[in-house]
Amino acid sequence: MQKLEVFGASRLKGQIKISGSKNASLPILAATLLSSKKIFLKNLPKVKDIETMISLLQSLGSKISYDGEKHIIDNSNQKKFFASYNLVKTMRAGILVLGPLLAKFGKAKVSLPGGCAIGTRPIDIHLKALSNLGVKYKIFQGYVHAIAPKGLIGTKIKFPQISVGATENLIIAASFAKGTTILSNCAVEPEVLDLVNFLKKIGCSIKWISKRCLSIKGVKKINEIIYSIMFDRIEAGTYLVAAAATEGNLRVKNVIPSLIKTELNILRKIGAKIKVKRNEIHIIGNKDIKNISFKTAPYPGFPTDLQAQFMVLLCKAKKDSFIKEDIFENRFMHVGELNRMGAQIKINGNKAIISGNTDFQAAELMATDLRASVSLIIAALTAKGKSVINRIYHLDRGYENLEKKLKKVGAKIKRSG
Ligand code: UD1
């Protein structure tokens, strides 16, 4: 099994170009199922989750190729509506094909994604909302068997809780339903907005009628388009934290700074110097890191996907900090490993109390999920000596060329095994 060796301490200096967003690419790839025309996608990140989604689409009959600049997705002969366990089990976002398959065929059989390390992650909100559109379903032998006897029929749906995936699944399904669907209490993450922009470009009729409310009129005709996926705001946030934690001097490029205001404000409060240009953020880390308290929340709140990385930074503050994790029930798995490196973090339910003044020590470590693994790498970059991070397949799910990008800005990092 592959591992990463990190030789610290390093100070990150230079420029990093941010890749396309994994979490925007996944629903957009699922949405291409609606189209019988060719779709050209630019800026899909080269990460494992995207490979898995491409394999899932291919298993459904999509023809997908890459011309060195863009992916060409041809669903003109896509006829299957069965998404198998083998592909959905490794990536929860596989459930995003349920909405488009039902919209296209009026039936679908999709594996339940199951639990994952960060919590039970049910799909009840997706299923309840789809049943409002006329879908009947049963769960049998680990699969959702769904059928829409009269096709999908537009209606008013209020999500009981904000869910990124359920919002995306329903937006895609409603785009091909009969009549108009009003979705309220929607997630408004930038990736949801990117999906809406994509769908509008292929010809769907979607309007925001208030901050969390969308009106979607079903359409039949889809245009052939070229679309470029937005930047990965979690990747950008990860490198900004790595720069702040290593007292670095980094320019993070290919970003839209206004989309990560919450994170930039926290970095400023912690003491980092930040200058923002149109497509670039320049960060200079400060030796004195200030303590802070925050909680994770749906956008525009602080993203749960950056909680682990910011925790590493707060370990180096002068006083105690607090983080409340309000999105996932079990997202503190990095804490055990960070404490093995010398951090003093206590967990009480969904709250973490982080004692500052930590000088991380190099250690052999175990990654447990995507964002937890990258938090261990940030800690290892600040620690003197060699750290070894095992189970890095988690990392490969979501970070394109991580070692290459970090090496270019001064990190000493090597993949082995
Ligand atoms: C997406 C992101 C993930 C991010 C998360 C929250 C993708 C591919 N993944 O995940 O990186 O951490 O948003 O910003 O975009 N829930 C239910 N029932 C449901 C659906 C969700 O109870 O049917 C709960 C979840 O368990 C969780 C919360 O709602 O506690 C939010 O989950 P959701 O927003 O749906 O996350 P994902 O779309 O899975």
Number of domains: 2
Helical coverage, percent range: 25-40%
Gyration radius, in Å: 22 Å
Summed over residues and divided by their number, the pLDDT gives a mean of 95
Can you list the ligands bound to this structure? uridine-diphosphate-N-acetylglucosamine
Tell me which CATH architecture of the largest domain applies here.
Alpha-beta prism
Broad CATH class of the largest domain = Alpha Beta
Overall geometric form: globular
Going by CATH, the homologous superfamily of the largest domain would be Enolpyruvate transferase domain
CATH topology of the largest domain: UDP-n-acetylglucosamine1-carboxyvinyl-transferase, Chain
Textual characterization of the structure:
Strand 22, helix 12 (370-382) and strand 23 form a beta-alpha-beta unit. This protein has two domains: 3-19 and 231-416, Enolpyruvate transferase domain (UDP-n-acetylglucosamine1-carboxyvinyl-transferase, Chain, Alpha-beta prism); 22-228, Enolpyruvate transferase domain (UDP-n-acetylglucosamine1-carboxyvinyl-transferase, Chain, Alpha-beta prism). It has a four-stranded mixed sheet with strand order 22-23-1-24. Strands 2-15-17-16 form a four-stranded mixed sheet. It contains 14 helices and 24 strands. The chain is an alpha/beta fold. The model has no long low-confidence stretch (mean pLDDT 95). It binds uridine-diphosphate-N-acetylglucosamine. The site of uridine-diphosphate-N-acetylglucosamine has 22 residues, from helix 1, helix 5 and helix 6.
